Amino acid sequence: MKRIGNHTLQLDPPAYVHGSGSFAGKKESEGPLAQYFDATHDDTTLGESSWEKAESKLQTEAVKTAIEKAHLKPSDIQYIFAGDLLNQCISSTYGLRDLNIPFLGLYGACSTMALGMGMAAVFVSSGAAENAVAVTSSHFCSAERQFRFPLEYGGQRTPSAQWTATAAGAVVLERQPSPICVTEVTFGRMTDLGVTDANNMGAAMAPAAACTLTDYFTDTGHTPQDFDLILTGDLGYVGSSLLREMMRKSGWDIETNHNDCGLMIYDRKAQDTHAGGSGCGCSASVVCGYVLKKMQQGTFHDVLFAATGALMSPTALQQGESIVGISHLVHLHSDVPAKTK
Amino acid sequence: MQLSEKQYKSMYKKASPNSNLFVDCLWAFGVGGAICALGQALSNLYMMMLHDLTIARTWVSITLVGLAAILTALRIYDNLAKHAGAGTIVPITGFANSIVSPAMEFKSEGLVLGLGAKMFTVAGPVLVYGTTASVIYGLILYGFHLY
């Protein structure tokens, strides 16, 4: 493993993807990516007595499935990197407490999947671990009540507001080679351009994504054209258009191959999710479901996954602070040959 | 690319879609008006039955609050409010919704520290400043009556 440029880590050997799990709720199962989840739940409580317990269960399911697909047992896993949106990251704590795996809790808001994957990849590549798991989740109902209003409260959402996805995603990374791997990681810098509107997270996070993508391209010498997909995590409609504009002005045109997990997970207009999806589970389930499956099929070979997080606290906002954005990036590479017709 | 906060603000204001003010106003007017018309109809009905305006109006408030509470519990109120906005928030029905919805939501933390403590998280400020304003108004009125 070596450091290239100012911010990027080149993983040599890479960290190989061996299994992934992707679970989601009802609204996500009605969206365009429904077929790529391992399973979806029609009951948003998952049979539990609270939304928080439901989210924990979602995370447990994702981890167990990922570990099973890697042909391992929980006792074989050396580290687990996990986080979520709730205070004290309780979805991770209670979702993973019975697995008995050394646990490293992370908070990166909606950027947690890329943060966790990056950390797990660095641990594996450096030899600190034979394998490691990264997992994260979010739940619409548990997030609403922590960050906004009770579900049945008759408020109106603004058009720039995003919809927290009920979903979880987990991935197992190992030193043992496999066709898909993480080759580079860029941990992001915090950016803050003074956005204070909690209903416009896309605008708060877009500068962070632009910063990390620019850092990555500058460090590695790669250009946007080297990638089949440049995938940001939950900037939504507003943030995505801002990111594209900022990148174009910086001389990096990502117009043709950029997409955003928040725009992919729902049919924004038909499902009335306003600016699109958000939440840690949004990008986690899209990457661990759709993206990794497409890489296994040979559709995508090089994917830049830059998850974005708004490090937003209702307390800090009420005290007049602005929203700090962050974006972490992993470069996923697949050796699976493209299918010829 | 280096952007100042001011430059970025104009950029994201431009990129962020605004609510459709005309449609929102139309909804608020229609639904808010309908709730008020229902109140008036109830008032007339109760007047016929009770022949006392003060008591009839009290029963109007009780009926509307009860109706809003039931619609909230049935998970219908928020679906109407999504479109109606101020039309469902401003009348007394909105007040009922703002108390019932946190009560439902925080039941999971128990009846005392959950439901009991969190019931007024949304309506609390309205009660505090509503009561304060009425005291100030009362004092001013009292002042006028002295002369």
Structure characteristics:
heterodimer; A: 341 residues; alpha/beta; Peroxisomal Thiolase, Chain A, domain 1; 2 domains; two-stranded parallel sheet; 14 strands; 33% helix; globular; B: 147 residues; mainly alpha; 0% strand; extended
Q: Give the largest interface.
A: A-B, 33 and 36 residues
**Gap between N and C termini of chain A:** 38 Å
User: How many domains make up the 3D coordinates of chain A?
Assistant: 2
**How would you sum up the global shape of chain A?**
globular
- CATH evolutionary superfamily of the largest domain in chain A: Stage V sporulation protein AD
Distance between the termini of chain B: 68 Å
DSSP strand (E) fraction of chain B? under 5%
Number of strands of chain B: 0
Highest CATH level, the class of the largest domain in chain A: Alpha Beta
Number of DSSP helices of chain B? 8
For the biggest sheet of chain B, the summary is:
none
Give the integer mean of the pLDDT values of chain B: 94
| Biggest sheet statistics of chain A | 12 strands, mixed
What order do the SSEs of chain A take from the amino end to the carboxyl end, as H and E? EEHEHEHEHEHEEEHEHEHEHEHE
| Sequence of secondary-structure elements of chain B | HHHHHHHH
Query: What are the low-pLDDT stretches of chain B, counting only 5+ consecutive residues below 50?
Result: none
CATH topology of the largest domain in chain A: Peroxisomal Thiolase, Chain A, domain 1
Helix percentage of chain A: 25-40%
Helix content of chain B: over 70%
Shape of chain B: extended
Entry summary:
The complex is a heterodimer of chains A (341) and B (147). Chain A is an alpha/beta fold and 341 residues long.
